[in-house]
Structures are given as structure tokens and as C-alpha cells.
Amino acid sequence: MNKKNIAVSVGTGAIIGLLLASGVAVAKISLHGKFPAGTAVAGIDISYKTPVEAKEVLQEKKERYVKIPIKIQILEEEKEFLPEDLGIDILMEETIATIRESDARSFGLINIIMNSASGATNHEPVVVVNFERLKQALEENFELSEIAPKQATFFFDETRKLTIKDEEKGVLIDKAELARTIRERGKNLSSEKIEVETKEVYPEITAEKLEKQRGDIERALNQRTTLIDPVYRDNWYLRLIDNIDWVEFETTQNMGIPILSDSNEDTRIKIKIKQEKLDEYIDEHISRWLDREAEDVEIYKNEEGKIIIEGTGSNGKRVDRKMMKEAMELAVHNGVSEITIPVLHIEPKITVDEELKELGIKERIGVGHSSYYGSPWNRVHNIKVSAERFNGRLIAPGEVFSFNQTLGPVNAATGYRRELVIKPEGTIPEYGGGICQTSTTLYRAVLLSGLEVTERHPHSYAVTYYSQVMGHGMDATVYLGGPDLKFKNDTENHVLLQAYVKDNYELYMVFYGTHDGRSVEMKGPFLGSYRNPGPTIYQETNTLAPGQTKQVEKRHVGFRADWKRILTRGDGTVEEENIYTNYRAIPARILVGAGGE
Prior knowledge:
The protein is an alpha+beta fold.
């Protein structure tokens, strides 16, 4: 090796030695929790500083920065904003943490040496931009909605006629570029002026397009929508054209502060319903009938061992107003003429004493409900008396429950009054008329609880009292010594029956027990096979004076009313049960006095 090569080698070794020594020194600084030499944030040197010291330095710079306004120019107008007004926020804690993570990943003797040799490492602070705040600031100061393109739209003139307002071209700002620029200003702690890019735009919705859509809008406004009462079938009907103060027109795209969009969506006008106006209608017409508070219940045995049920344990109900608005809008847009009023169910609190809990009485497992508005008072009385016979009845596992056996004697001595009863000779007054409302309600509770029905008989003809809730085909007729309603408690626990009348014309039958995972879905009624009852029958009788008449049977149309019960057990087994009801066609029958014996 010649002297020249020896000198180069020695020199190189000396340089490497110096670099190694320097690297070791830097490493020692870093290992003591300080940032290495050449570390900077937005050009601010934080070399040899601890994270706490670095944060103090950066915080001081941030506080100066946030007090310096940034000029923004849109078209010919220029305004000044503080960074926070534009939604700019510099997160110092996150910035320091990001630098430390980066330093940890790159930490190593060679990296330190190379960083020392190559100069400073400049980090960007962590910056977030609240774009909603930015849009608000720009709208308030530049009135972007005024310079934006105006879509053509529908409105109602002073004569309530559907009219079209013409479109107007305008200017939009570039959303993507603005966001990038704002964020860059924050990363560099820069207060440099921003000139926002704009673009002249023609509206997508023109009067010409709306003219083609006018027919659809007019049909939607004139559509008669039936709001189906999910409980009493006492429906409401309305047309939006009769309630134009409910109506507003909106595009299928966002019409907020105008921002350039790359969407190719076919933009159309849609009818929207004002929530506050719909709420007023619900308050006035619907909620006072459907909305109810949940009523808690306490179940216990008294000192005599009798089961006491205090409270009804009935569900609360409340119209789901937001969902109803959405359902109505969908119905209007899609030409659907009926919607069921959506109702939220509110569960009551159920308190049961320990003795009954041990028998499995823990929760509601099913509820039967019927209403009988329009019933004569004797019928209402008999329903109340019969319902009391069933309240508090405890049914053991495997027990077959008989309605007639539990009901007991029906006469004046047991508290009943005379009311109409369906018999072969006609519909005539008899003690206990109306008891079938009680058996019908119990039948529904059995079905909805998923219990096994072992005997059920429908009425010979359709009775309107039984169709007020759920419709036809869910009735059960009974008569002492004749048709009975029977069911089996096929659960592994006792079942407790509660019966109560609410507001004189609504009967509830509630089963309490233990859920075993079964669930029930009822489908129906499926109506069909209508039959005309034929001409009125006039029947002579000696019980009336000559020429005197008395109607003993009204005219009843015959038809089928079928249901399907889908029972899903806890193990996933599905059982389908068809419930067939064939109502007879019965002609009107009038007695005519013949006179004499």
C-alpha cells in the first residue's frame, strides 16, 4: 500500500470515527428522551428538547398563529378569518406522539448518523379541519347560496296551483381544492392568502325537466292515502293536495351549501313532508286514540292464598312519528295507497313475588285483545262479569283448560243479564249474551302465546264486534253444554291468566309464565268465497197480533276468513297451523203475526 492510499484510509477512518462518536453522542441524547439533532416541526427546531419542552415551543408558535387572520378571496370579494373560524385545529399532543413514533421506528446508529449528515428532519403537525364550520363561515360571509346555481323547483302559487320556478345559473366552489389548501395552511402555520377556485355551473334541474315530471307530482299530490289503524282498524284518509302546507320539494341530491360534485346521479324533485305539520295532524287525530302509557303490574298472593294482580301490565303505545313520515313519503313516491301507522310498544314493569316466581310466573308470554264498541249496555255488563271469572286463574303444566268449566253457571243469580245470543232458532235474548267476546279474547291470547288449542268453534255468521281488532276469523263461540274453548298449557311451567276490561269496551286476556323461546307470527285474514244470503224470510207466528212484525234475524253475508299461525319453537322447529272459518250466509228473518191460536 502506498503512502497516498494509507493517507486516504487513515482519513476515512478518522471521519468514520468522528461520525461514530457523533452518532453515539446523538444516540445518548435520544436515549435520554430528547429529540435528536435536526428535528423540526413546520420549520420550528425542537432539537435536543424533551417532548414536554417541544410541546411548549410549538404551543407558543400555535398561539401566535391562531391570532393572525387569513385572507380568503372568492370572485372579487375578500374577507379575513382567524384559523379557528375556518375550522383549523392543530393537535399538539398528537403531533408530539407522531414524531416520537416516527423517531422510534427510525432510531438506530446508522439512521442517526445519516440524519446528522443529511441535515434536519422537518415534520408536519397533525391538523384537522372541521369542514362544516368552514362551510358555515364561508356561507355567512360570502353568501354562497346567493351566487350558487338555482335549481328549477315546484311551488304553490296564491291560488294553490302547482307552479314551476325557473332555474338560474351560478357559481360553485371547488370542495377538494379548498380542503387541501386549508389543511396545508395549517400544516405550515401559514397565514398566506387563499384564492378559492370557482366554476360557473348550470343547474341540473331545469324547468323543462320539471315540466316532464309535473304529471307524476300532481298524481302523487292527489293520491288518497289510507292510514291503517293497527289496533282498532278505524282508519284515517288524506291527500297531500288538501294539506299543501305539509309539502316541500327537494332534490334527490344534497342542496346545502353548493359544492362541486362528481356525482352522475339523475337528479329529480321529490315530495317531502314537513315533520312539524305531520306531528300536528297526529296530535289532533291519531295520538289521542293510539298513544298510551305503559301500566305496571304487581302479582302476589295475599294472606288467604288468593292471587292478587294489581295493575294491568298493559303495553304502552306511541306513534313512531319519524317512521310514519318516512313511510308516507315512500308511499307517495311509489304510488302505494295504504300504510299501517307505525307504533312503538313500551313494556311495563312486572313485579312478581317469590312464591309465584318459583312456579314460573315471571313475564308476559302473550296478550289477547278485542274491542266491542257499539255494544248495548247489557252486553258490556255480561263481558265484565264473565271476565272476572278468569282473572287470577293458575294453569299447571300439561293441564287442559276448559272455558265452560271455568265460567260456571250463567244466570241471573250469577250476575248476568239478558242479551242477544246466536241460537238455531235465531239471535234471541238470553242470560249471558256477550260472553263469546270473552272466549274470543282468550282464544287470541292462546294463539299469540303459542299454546296448543284443543277445541275451538267459530260463530255461525260473522259478528262485527269480533272484527274490530284483528279482523274476521279470530272468534270462538261457547255455550254451556255445547261448544267449548279448550287449550293445553304445553309449557314446562305454570301459566297465570289475567283478564281485565279497559274503558268499558276493550277486553284484554294476558298470560304470564316463562318464555321458552317460542314465537308466533299470525298471517291473515284471507277473505273470500262470498255468498249472498238470499231473500228475506217471513215467518208466521201466533205470538204476535195480526199484521204485527218482528225481525228476529238480520241479513248476514257468508264468506271464508282464514288465518295461518306460524309457531317457531325454541329449538328452531317451525309449525304451521291453518285456521279455517266458514261463516254462513243467513237471510233476514221476520216474524209476522197471524192472529189466533
